[in-house]
């Protein structure tokens, strides 16, 4: 049985958005953060990276990897405040050691990575503080129960046919969904967009939902 692990960073129904990289995307190793310039309102660390050219390594937004988001939500100020407190220098002016690993390219000139602060995983710290939930989701690739053995098997075929209603996305999210996705059902009609094809959604800057696998 295959599982995919998503972290939903949330407090009282709020969440960090736009942080999940495609599972097939190449990774680019690790890097050390030399300075955190700020924590952006969308949860990104705006930081300088050691050993990187200025074009890439200066004030680059870095998002937490493996974060799945419910649409139409804003970042909780408690989450932002905790991240700011965690990455700021101590009373003696000593900055924490911040390491990035499993780095991937993000959208709009950003990076996506696992972030460790003084050796501790930032996502795990958010979970421990009650600012995040760990959600286990079955591999969205086609799964069926073998009637003869009663065992659960996973396929790899991605559904190709577009659903009758096309695909939907929130005006405030960069993720698109199947109409029957639980996140799509939470959207307010006045804040949703409809796309006839996957290509149309992706040309509009949307990426596929990791839950419904459109």
Describe the SSE topology:
Blueprint: E1 3-11, E2 14-15, E3 31-39, E4 45-49, H1 54-57, E5 60-64, H2 77-87, E6 98-105, E7 111-117, E8 120-121, H3 122-128, E9 132-138, E10 143-145, E11 152-154, E12 167-170, E13 175-177, H4 182-185, E14 192-195, H5 198-203, E15 207-208
Parallel strand pairs: 5-7, 13-15
Antiparallel strand pairs: 1-2, 1-9, 3-4, 3-6, 4-5, 6-7, 7-8, 10-11, 12-13, 12-14
Quick summary of this structure?
By secondary structure, this protein is α+β, with helices and mostly antiparallel strands. The chain has five helices and 15 strands.
Features:
alpha+beta, 5 helices, OB fold (Dihydrolipoamide Acetyltransferase, E2P), 5-stranded mixed beta barrel, disordered N terminus, 15 strands, 2 domains
3D structure, described in words:
It is a single chain. This protein has 214 residues and is α+β, with helices and mostly antiparallel strands. It folds into two domains: 3-136, OB fold (Dihydrolipoamide Acetyltransferase, E2P), CATH 2.40.50; 162-214, DNA Methylphosphotriester Repair Domain, CATH 3.40.10. Helix content is 15%, strand content 34%. The protein is built from five helices and 15 strands. The chain has helices at 54-57, 77-87, 122-128, 182-185, 198-203, and strands at residues 3-11, 14-15, 31-39, 45-49, 60-64, 98-105, 111-117, 120-121, 132-138, 143-145, 152-154, 167-170, 175-177, 192-195, 207-208. The chain has a five-stranded mixed barrel. Strands 14-12-13-15 form a four-stranded mixed β-sheet. Strands 2-1-9 form a three-stranded antiparallel β-sheet, with helices on one face. A hairpin with a 4-residue loop joins strand 12 and strand 13 (175-177). The longest helix has 11 residues, at 77-87. The two termini are 21 Å apart.
